[in-house]
From TrEMBL:
<dbReference type="InterPro" id="IPR011330">
    <property type="entry name" value="Glyco_hydro/deAcase_b/a-brl"/>
</dbReference>
<dbReference type="InterPro" id="IPR018763">
    <property type="entry name" value="DUF2334"/>
</dbReference>
<protein>
    <submittedName>
        <fullName>DUF2334 domain-containing protein</fullName>
    </submittedName>
</protein>
<dbReference type="Pfam" id="PF10096">
    <property type="entry name" value="DUF2334"/>
</dbReference>
Amino acid sequence: MTAPATPVAPRKRLLASIHDVSPRFERQVDMLAERLSGHLGAGRFAMLVIPDHWRGAPIAGNAAFQARLRGWADMGIEMFLHGWAHKDETPATQGLAGFKGKHMTAGEGEFLNLSHAQAVERMSAGKALVEDILGRPVAGFIAPAWLYGEGAHAALSELGFALAEDHMKVWRPADGMVLAKGPVITWASRSKARIASSLWFSALARQALPALRTVRVAVHPGDTTVPALLASIDSTLARFARSHVPSRYASLQGPAGLF
């Protein structure tokens, strides 16, 4: 009689990403890519591409940076669209949207207050631009500062993005299915208070989050300016690389991908 198969434990995943990939931050992105590669292996992370950071660093027409994007994608790095300008040009002043825009980002919640039509226009243009450069589909869409308004959510559901992400989850826009849950571990460099709070949270996360099926880590160009943040990033990546397999976001779409 054949013995029953031993159940296979679900694979734990580590998803890492470099935000704000733009010609404006090319040197810092190189530094972060080298750091992540050292912990996770070459190409075992994602990049979030901004087509025209603050409308002063366009990728369109920049052949050298376009070649860099293709080279990174050829290494296996997943490429997400990360807004269009990464700048909130329609800021709210009241209510929950106003609170988020003021306290959760430094004027960069681009998709927090856009109408449906505006969100469709920017997402469509960004998707077409980046996919034309790469010669392949983008991996998904992640809004600047992980902030989405109603217009952005509506646009996501109809534009064919495979994945989307906010502070607390990764989901599939086509049907709204949540594929991973848990807070993003990230760092902030724009003030002493935010540096201190992000160091505190990342230290807590190293102790509290190893049981999560999927752990997400996100780094930003500004992190490279603060040695304490870089040390914390190293500690965090090293800790989770021991318990979680450095993986691609696309792996969440598989049968073992949920949560």
